[in-house]
Amino acid sequence: MSLGELSRHSWLGMIHFDSHRHMVLFPVRRLLVPNQVEDAATDVYLGPSTESHRSVVLDTMRGFALLGILFVNFQGQVGEVWPTADYLARQAIGALARDSFYPIYAFLFGVGFFHQIQRIDPSGRSSERLYLRRLGALFVIGSVHAVGFWTGDVLVNYSILGIALLLVHRMPVSLQLAAACALIAVSASGRDAVHPLALSELSAFDGRPRIDSYLEGLKWRWTVYSEEVWGYTQVSRWIQSSSLGLFILGAVGARMHGLMTNAGRRLTTWTVLVVGIAAGVGGHLALMSRLVEAPSVPFTAAWTAANYGLAATYGAGIACIIGERAGVHRWLGPLASAGRLSLTNYLTQSVVLVTAYTPLGIGLNDPGAAFKALVCAAFFFGIQIPLSQWWLARFPMGPVEWLWRRASYGHLATNRRGA
Q: Rounded to the nearest 10 degrees, how much is the dihedral formed by the CA atoms of 121, 125, 126, 130?
């Protein structure tokens, strides 16, 4: 799935909680600690991470999004054994996950960018220069992923689109919001007229040519990758990117979050939740009832409301649950652990999928029945959670996150607790 199709409408910057479970803000200067900068795409601190410098809300959102992305990428078809269960599984993924989980990362990328660009580098290098180096490293990691394993890679697109954030981050907030809304509107109006519940063509494996060898698949993925990257030489590709609009919204959200009082942040979170539910339910009802037909402005509006509303609901809902329910964050801790290793876990999911469903490994042609694929995806994510907890008990960051930092800063980074 191309990053250009991603969308997100969750705003919740750096929310933290005090001992009484009240929402509080990490002051910006507290975040500007040398060598403790958050990654632009994964929000992982570059230095040894401590719990006091992390947001359990963002980590939980990220882990929740990883699960949804896995469901989307791991879709199966309607089989012959349990056709009803397969049909319902595909319907649920199409309505609740397909365009509402991937977008989380677009917004979080913008949040991470805001804190990255505010960083004070003790070596004297500008934050913009460091940010560009990180984008370059992310581009290399994404390129290996896209060509070697998964054509649905989003990292390459993130690394390219992220450059544009340097052009707008000094603009007034009003202009940034206008630019973000314009990009999202243009992207929504130009998307293909595919009803979100018409799921016969939504599998990540649909449309893929039959590949009989890894080398053959490598050539095919290189062709797809080359076309994707070359597309960014056209201005229209940038203008039609909803992800770029969401990057900007994420940066604005993080910036405005620091200007709000505790009461203002709480009110905003609940407002986003209520509006998100109303928009998500209303948009999906309009689409399901066939009151709007594509292509048309009403259809675009309904699709946007449905998917952006769900994204807002997911993000604000997590923040409200953690902020209002004492002790709930402990139950969500395993999900947050997976989110802290989001880049590593995301890439691992692709490697496992390719190993299972191409001649590189087991050689299956597709995930098979949709319900079975859904259960298998949930089981696999259930394995990633304890592995993430085990890793974080020994290291402050994931292996790919560490590699990203190493490539970005050009020196060997320590990845040991207490180092």
A: -90
Q: Encode pLDDT of 119-142 as tens digits.
A: 654 455 567 888 888 999 999 999
Q: Among 42, 80, 46, 34, which Cα is nearest to 58's?
A: 42
Q: Out of 62-66, 96-100, 270-274, 339-343, pick the least confident.
A: 96-100
Residue 16, phi then psi, degrees to nearest 5: -130, 175
Taking a C-beta distance cutoff of 8 angstroms, is the pair 40, 112 a contact? Answer: yes
> pLDDT tens digit string along 297-310?
788 888 888 889 99
Q: What share of the chain is helix, strand, coil (3-state, %, to 5)?
A: 65, 0, 35
Place of tokens 């339910």: 281
26 to each of 124, 127, 207, how far by Cα in Å?
24, 20, 46
> What size, in residues, is the chain?
419
Which tens digits make up the pLDDT trace of 90-124?
Answer: 888 888 888 888 888 889 888 888 878 776 544 55
Distance CA(319)–CA(21), nearest Å, equals 11
Confidence of residue 384 (pLDDT cuts 50, 70, 90): very high
The H or E element containing residue 348 is helix 342-357
Structure confidence at residue 188 (pLDDT): 79
Q: Are 81 and 369 in contact (CB under 8 A)?
A: yes
CA distances from 236 to 44, 59, 179, 190, 268 (A): 32, 33, 15, 11, 34
What gap in Å lies between CA 240 and CA 379, rounded to an integer? 36
Q: Of 189, 180, 138, which Cα lies nearest the Cα of 162?
A: 138
Q: Distance (Å, rounded) from C-alpha 70 to C-alpha 373?
A: 10
Report yes or no: 157 and 230 within 8 Å, Cβ to Cβ: no
* 186, two tokens: 């243009």
Q: Any idea what the Cα angle at residue 155 is, between residues 151 and 161, rounded to 5°?
A: 115
Between residues 90 and 383, which one has the greater pLDDT?
383
> Given the DSSP bridges, would you call strands 15-17 and 23-25 parallel, antiparallel or unpaired?
antiparallel
Q: Can you read off the two tokens belonging to residue 267?
A: 């009110």
pLDDT score at 55: 78
The number of beta carbons lying within 10 Å of the beta carbon of residue 149 is: 22
Terminal Cα distance for the chain, rounded: 39
- Tell me which DSSP letter residue 411 carries: S
Q: What is each CA distance from 335 to 24, 318, 330, 347, 350, in whole angstroms?
A: 22, 11, 10, 17, 19
Q: Tokens standing for 170?
A: 């000094």
